[in-house]
Amino acid sequence: MSKIEKFIREYPVRSYECDRDGQLRLITLLNIFQDVADSHANQMGLGYDFCQTKGLAWVGSNYHIGIDRLPRWHETIKVITWPCEERRLGAIRDFRVEDETGHPIIVAASQWILIDFAKKRPVGLRENLPDYQVIPERALETDFAKLPQPEKEDTTTEFKVRYDDIDVNNHVNNAVYPLWASESVDPAFRLEHVPQELEIAFKKEGHYGERVKIITEIQENVSLHDITALSDGRELAKVRIKWQKRS
């Protein structure tokens, strides 16, 4: 088995990927992470193409992201990813985003579960995947702490799951949940703050046409979000965002 290498890809930050202040949107950042993770997993022989032949799928269970600053329009960033740890049912994959000088501006950790796609049940990694290696180096040390329930409802926001929110696994794409969470924060607050830290715990699948409710609590510079389906009350995700003042 050949030695595994970190996967590296450069991305020019385009205007349509940025917010009103020219900074990369969170949804775009999550989609970039998904892109490099998919590409590296396929390169390793255990990505989407392999899973399709075995009736398997990778599903994200957690993200923890630390942000020094968000990239800006016209920058070219380097995104580096690698699998760094294996747990009983989950695999940990980390990310590092560097600016044009090689300085890290974002670090992240993610946890992925391998499931039997038809049964929607977790399966063991080593029993179902080709041999693979990990690189025991962390970009961000985290245990993916359990996120608390909001204790009060500062705001309640509803969204309808759009056709374009659905991904190749036929459920709401992971990147949509932090978008819903940040959209539920008062625009006046967001005009003065940017994300510094983001934690996401994915719980259940969201589906096309459903209406979802986001309960949001603001604790000084932290927003807590509980995202549920209105039809049956099932919890889809929890999100915690730590904000910092815009410079």
From TrEMBL:
InterPro entries for the chain: Acyl-ACP_TE_C, Acyl-ACP_thioesterase_NHD, FATA/B, HotDog_dom_sf
Give the highest taxon in the source lineage.
Bacteria
Q: Which residues form the Acyl-ACP thioesterase N-terminal hotdog domain?
A: 6-127
- Recite the UniProt keywords alphabetically: Fatty acid biosynthesis, Fatty acid metabolism, Hydrolase, Lipid biosynthesis, Lipid metabolism, Transit peptide
Q: Matching Pfam families, A to Z? A: Acyl-ACP_TE, Acyl-ACP_TE_C
Question: Where does the Acyl-ACP thioesterase-like C-terminal domain start and stop, copy by copy?
Answer: 150-245
Keyword Hydrolase tagged: yes
Molecular function GO labels: acyl carrier activity; fatty acyl-[ACP] hydrolase activity
Which family does the record assign? Answer: Belongs to the acyl-ACP thioesterase family.
Question: What is the designated name of this protein?
Answer: Acyl-ACP thioesterase
The species this protein belongs to is Candidatus Scatocola faecipullorum
